[in-house]
Write a structure and sequence with these properties.
Glucose Permease (Domain IIA); 3 domains; two-stranded antiparallel sheet; 53% helix; coiled coil
Length: 453
């Protein structure tokens, strides 16, 4: 009969369903407990066989359905991801053009202000010179009409005096001519400056119009990119689970974990926040404010690259993934090949005990080189990584998910863990069926409620 129990256990662990939890309402736990016994009645044996067959078929069908959809979803995600990146590139290019045009506007406005000051100065010079010439002409008309002019010359007492008087008259006439020429030059310059001013004002208005047009393009592109982003988000969570099974040798990992003496880890009295700074940039269960925003199974805390990330409680790093660069983008699947979940970038999975309940806490998108390694025993508040921009991201943040696993000890849970990085609580839309507000462990806890966001 123990063989039957082992067959059932293998079937239930298929696809990483986590069983070793103590919630009475959990059907898997009920059958595992009953079917692992040695003194079963014939009716119980039949019930166990039927359940094992049923569960195995359900899990296999689920696996087949995932495999069937994976390629199709991956291709669509790659296409939408590239589309979003193209929008982002266009927006970035337009923003650069807008910044350049705004700089030109500032320069042009300074040039116009200087030109207006120059025009004002010339107008003042022209007015002063015009007044001077007009006064000179008035005086000339009063004193140098023809008869008076001849009387002035003929009144010379001798030839030398006559020459001096003729020279004086020439000087007066030359001065008047020079003043008039200077006045004409200033007026020509003034007209040229005014023409240039009109040209620069027209260019300024054209540049401002161009800026407004580009701003409208940016708004339009952002709206289109948001629609594409929404489409991406609706499918990305469904695909993430494809990489939600730890890679490598589980037996080797369990051997290492068993040597750490996890039974001596004391339970924490409450949850420690993942960061001491940053803001909640996306909430749990859905992106945005409604269910049409796409499934989002955790909260996002946005902060600068390098911001420390802290352990939620006393426990052990059950899994860690590192090696993704800090230049993540929409559609980047990095994380799966490194031993974590698809698109999660550099990540840590913490197994912790809080108020005598076992939880798993998932931290994604860390900076390369920062994730605490698998097997590290930590205390609440210890640094386990830093915020980065790795994997499937649009900006620097840490994505946090919380799983309630039951009352089994850390040591017992670690020794029987299947390697499922969703901890038996499902993923994508299916993850919404395992919310702790509706079902028992294993289930998903809304991080904002336990971390106080």
């Amino acid at each position: 009969m123990k063989k039957l129990g082992l067959i059932l256990l293998s079937a239930i662990l298929l696809l990483g369903m986590v069983l070793p939890v103590m919630a009475d309402e959990d059907e898997d736990v009920y059958y595992l407990t009953m079917c692992s016994g040695s003194d079963l009645s014939e009716a119980q044996k039949t019930e166990c066989q039927n359940y094992a067959s049923k569960r195995n078929n359900e899990l296999q069908n689920e696996l087949n359905e995932i495999k069937k959809k994976r390629k199709e979803i991956e291709e669509d995600l790659a296409k939408v991801g590239q589309e979003i990146r193209n929008y982002d590139s266009q927006i970035s290019s337009l923003q650069s053009q807008i910044n350049s045009l705004n700089a030109q506007i500032v320069e042009k406005e300074a040039s116009i202000a200087a030109l207006e000051e120059q025009i004002l100065q010339k107008e003042n010079e022209i007015n002063a010179l015009r007044e001077k010439v007009e006064q000179r002409l008035v005086r000339s008309q009063q004193t140098l009409h023809t008869n008076q002019f001849l009387d002035f010359l003929m009144g010379a007492e001798d030839f030398t005096s006559l020459l001096r008087r003729i020279q004086g008259v020439n000087d007066i006439m030359n001065y008047d001519k020079k003043s008039l020429e200077e006045l004409k030059t200033l007026m020509d310059q003034l007209n040229a400056d005014k023409e240039q001013l009109n040209i620069e004002k027209e260019e300024l208005e054209a540049t401002k119009t161009d800026v407004e047009a580009k701003k409208r393009q940016v708004v339009s592109l952002k709206a289109t990119a948001e629609l594409a982003q929404k489409k991406y988000e609706e499918q990305a969570a469904e695909l993430e689970a494809q990489g939600n099974q730890i890679s490598g040798s589980l037996s080797e990992l369990k051997g290492m974990l068993s040597s750490l003496g996890l039974g001596s880890i004391l339970t924490s009295s409450g949850f420690t926040r993942p960061t001491n700074s940053g803001r909640l940039s996306a909430g749990t269960w859905h992106y945005g404010l409604n269910v049409n925003g796409g499934v989002h199974l955790g909260m996002d805390i946005a902060a600068g690259v390098g911001t420390p990330i802290f352990a939620a409680g006393n426990g052990v790093v059950l899994a860690s993934a590192d090696g993704c660069s800090n230049d993540g983008y929409i559609g980047n699947s990095c994380g799966e090949a490194q031993g974590g979940s698809r698109g999660g970038g550099n990540q840590v999975y913490l197994l912790t005990s809080i108020n005598n309940v076992t939880y798993a806490v998932k931290y994604l998108h860390m900076s390369p080189g920062s994730p605490a390694p698998t097997g590290r025993v930590v205390d609440a508040g210890d640094q386990i990584g830093t915020i980065g921009k790795s994997g499937n991201v649009t900006g620097a943040h840490v994505h946090v998910e919380v799983f309630k696993l039951g009352t089994m000890s850390l040591e017992s849970y670690a020794s029987s863990w299947s390697g499922d990085l969703a901890f038996g609580a499902g993923w994508g839309a299916a993850g919404l069926n395992r919310l702790c507000s509706n079902v028992g462990a294993p289930c998903r806890v809304k991080p904002e409620t336990v971390f106080g966001y």
